[in-house]
């Protein structure tokens, strides 16, 4: 009979914490929960909203589909304690953008919410990575980061991850290729001053500025300008048509969550308080950033053209002015 290892110093593997809390069960929070459920992003979902009837209904609706998705424990409450012990907390709570309203016009109410809520969330989940989706996400992220003494990178915003997805989709559509063949980034503000980094876009490994179909240059200056404008205006068009953007931000948020829970060291254009990249400091905006179990880490300084550099600086100036107008 084989001998048993009775060495009490042998440590047992610690089960990974895969609990994700979602704060705010409006259209965006619900879409994030649904995307996480069908993608198998999390082992447990905790839904928090001050509307107890709404959160109970969403929990039931999600649970009723349990047969068709990877196993996930789902709970919900109007008590913030339901978020306790989370590895990741996603915040979508706040006033939503109205038709014709810019993201920065939302700022005052949602900044105050973030300053109050962030310390409460970290009191219940001290080791959590807190990700803000609430708009205007850059200013809200700056306020949230400054409201707590969290570990570096543990509070950040969803930034331009969705904008970059829109960008890649439009490029792929123009090139008549699958979107997986396209690499490109939007940086700066998640909003009107964001910058399309055309100088580093590649389409099937070919620089966008050299990509041809039937011998014809596909991404000439006119097409580049049109696509960049369409990315900026995408949210306004969707809000005008159905009242809110929610499905794509649900999917992109689930992707960010997976990068954290999986310790993937994935480069994503999330929003962080910058510490000197491209000469920018003291303002939250999006640049390609390594996302891992420790949250938002190293910011990669992708080479910029002169016009892109000027645009990024202008975007930073716009956001800094918004922060200062709110006393941040």
UniProtKB/TrEMBL annotation:
InterPro entries in UniProt: L-lactate/malate_DH (IPR001557), L-lactate_DH (IPR011304), L-lactate_DH_AS (IPR018177), Lactate/malate_DH_C (IPR022383), Lactate/malate_DH_N (IPR001236), Lactate_DH/Glyco_Ohase_4_C (IPR015955), NAD(P)-bd_dom_sf (IPR036291)
Record keywords: Membrane, NAD, Oxidoreductase, Transmembrane, Transmembrane helix
Domain Lactate/malate dehydrogenase N-terminal: residue ranges: 18-157
GO cellular component, one term: cytoplasm
Active-site residue list: 190 (proton acceptor)
Residues that, per the record, bind NAD(+): 24-29, 49, 110, 133-135
A GO molecular function held by the record: L-lactate dehydrogenase (NAD+) activity
Pathways involved: Fermentation; pyruvate fermentation to lactate; (S)-lactate from pyruvate: step 1/1
Residue ranges constituting the Lactate/malate dehydrogenase C-terminal domain according to the UniProt record: 160-323
Family under the similarity heading: Belongs to the LDH/MDH superfamily. LDH family.
Protein name: L-lactate dehydrogenase
Source organism per UniProt: Mycolicibacterium vanbaalenii (strain DSM 7251 / JCM 13017 / BCRC 16820 / KCTC 9966 / NRRL B-24157 / PYR-1) (Mycobacterium vanbaalenii)
């Amino acid at each position: 009979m084989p001998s048993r290892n009775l060495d009490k110093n042998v440590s047992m593997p610690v089960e990974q914490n895969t609990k994700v809390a979602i704060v705010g069960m409006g259209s965006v929070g619900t879409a994030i929960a649904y995307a996480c459920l069908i993608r198998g992003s999390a082992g447990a979902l905790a839904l928090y909203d001050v509307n107890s009837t709404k959160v109970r209904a969403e929990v039931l609706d999600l649970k009723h589909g349990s047969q068709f998705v990877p196993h996930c424990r789902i709970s919900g409450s109007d008590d913030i304690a339901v978020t306790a012990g989370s590895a990741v907390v996603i915040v979508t709570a706040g006033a939503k953008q109205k038709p014709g309203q810019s993201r920065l016009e939302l700022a005052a109410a949602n900044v105050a919410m973030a300053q109050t809520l962030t310390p409460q969330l970290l009191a219940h989940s001290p080791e959590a990575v807190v990700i803000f989706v609430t708009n205007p996400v850059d200013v809200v992220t700056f306020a949230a980061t400054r409201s707590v003494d969290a570990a570096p990178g543990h509070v950040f915003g969803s930034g331009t991850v969705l904008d970059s997805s829109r960008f890649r989709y439009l490029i792929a559509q123009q090139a008549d290729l699958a979107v997986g063949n396209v690499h490109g980034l939007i940086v700066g503000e998640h909003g009107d001053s964001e910058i399309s980094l055309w100088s580093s876009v590649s389409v099937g490994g070919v620089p966008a500025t050299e990509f041809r179909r039937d011998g014809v240059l596909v991404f000439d200056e006119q097409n580049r300008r049109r696509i960049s404008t369409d990315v900026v205006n995408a949210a306004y068009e969707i809000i005008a048509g159905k009242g809110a953007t929610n499905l794509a931000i649900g999917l992109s948020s689930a992707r960010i969550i997976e990068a954290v829970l999986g310790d993937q060291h994935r480069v994503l254009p999330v929003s962080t308080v910058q510490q000197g990249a491209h000469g920018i400091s003291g303002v939250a905006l999006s640049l390609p950033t390594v996302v891992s179990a420790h949250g938002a880490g190293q910011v990669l300084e992708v080479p910029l053209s002169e016009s892109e550099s000027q645009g990024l600086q202008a975007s930073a100036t716009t956001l800094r002015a918004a922060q200062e107008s709110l006393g941040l």
